[in-house]
Amino acid sequence: MHIRIISPAGNIKGQLIDKGAATLKSWGHKVTIATHAKDKYGRFAATPEERAADIIEALEDPSVDILWCSRGGYGVVQMLDQIPLDLITKANKPIIGFSDVTALHALWNKAGVKSLHAPMMKHLADDPTHRTTKVLRELLDYYATHNHTWPPKHNGLFLKAGARNIIAEIEPQAVEFSETDASTLSFVGGNLSVLSGLHGTPFDYDYEGKVLFIEDIAEHAYKVDRMLQHLRLMGVLSQIKGLVCGHFTECDDDPTMPLRLWDNIRATVAPYGIPVLLGCPIGHELENYPVVIG
User: Fold this and answer.
1) Is the whole-model pTM more than 0.90?
2) Alpha helices in 127-220 (DSSP H)
3) What pLDDT is recorded for position 280?
């Protein structure tokens, strides 16, 4: 397959892109790098117009199969409205990444195109043999050999592994998804802070009947609660079929909050009677397993 590496948000060291590209090439893929992927415009990879142009060019190039983001950071919302929705639908090419890329996942979802919440260039450069990288490679192989579709049971199998291997380490009990639900329901979500920034815009997800997964990094416990309450007040918690919580990295418990972070999430969601999984391996840590969105 032909993978185009883009930098839609923060700038990144060129050597990380080159090393990540080398990993993908070693898997048998053709890799090209977008014109502005290695540029620097303050904290950003390039101007909003240049970053959008790289995405549009990759979507319009008939030889490109997948758009892979180099990193997150901040900046996607600056150019989200510059990417034509109908072009995404017509091109029907997945985008891969996480963190600030959550905004692009929401846009892709609105266009009706599946995407992949998964590691980016630093992970591919520094940990090319890690088990999460192995799963990522297997997913790409499946996509390449099954008419550009993702394995339908991937999210279900991932959640079962997450419940088995992670929940016990952080103590809270989890209401398990049935195998049918986990394999057939659509998943939406990503970084909670980015999702919060999309609420009330034309680019937010349609949450009705979906499984929502969230993760975050370096947020105070009260801010996490505020974003959860925002979801509650928007009616999202009454629309979704389940909630999956990934890593909340560097989001330390606050002794002034009556409940610990995980307990607060459980208490907020409990009235809705939906399945909840806490501490699944998704997010800003090495254990960042890919999740198919859509």
Assistant:
1) yes
2) 131-145, 154-165, 167-170, 179-184, 192-198
3) 85
